[in-house]
Design brief:
It is a single chain. Helix content is 61%, strand content 10%. A hairpin with a 6-residue loop joins β1 and β2. The protein has a two-stranded antiparallel sheet with strand order 1-2. The protein has 5 helices and 2 strands. It has 2 domains: 46 residues, no CATH class; 49 residues, no CATH class. It has 104 residues and is mainly alpha-helical. This is Flagellar motor protein MotB.
């Protein structure tokens, strides 16, 4: 992997781990079988916070664009797809995201 990709992965992992401490983006429940705590992390909120702080990746923009498209929030979907297509080359973006963007 390239240095740029390694840094992206590092930042994504770091902010996901740091984001688990925010009560707004996670819910703690107890597993019914093992009776251990399990944290349910809201990936959407975590990715949005990471992007707001200036860190981003293709995967984050695609995830958010696809998430909001499926949720029928086409305005937010277009927002994240616009960011994706402005920042990255067409050859780097998945065919699914390209197809969804064309429908907006």
């Amino acid at each position: 992997m390239t240095l740029k990709k390694n840094l992206s992965v590092f930042f994504i992992f770091s902010f996901i781990v740091l984001g688990t401490h925010n009560a707004n983006s996670q819910t703690v429940i107890y597993d019914s079988i093992s009776k251990q705590k399990v944290a349910l992390i809201d990936v959407r909120k975590t990715y949005e916070r990471v992007i707001d702080k200036g860190y981003a990746s293709i995967e984050m923009f695609e995830y958010l664009g696809n998430y909001y498209y499926k949720d029928k929030d086409f305005q937010k979907s277009k927002l994240y797809f616009d960011m994706l297509f402005k920042k990255y080359k067409l050859s780097q973006i998945s065919k699914k995201s390209i197809d969804l963007y064309k429908t907006l």
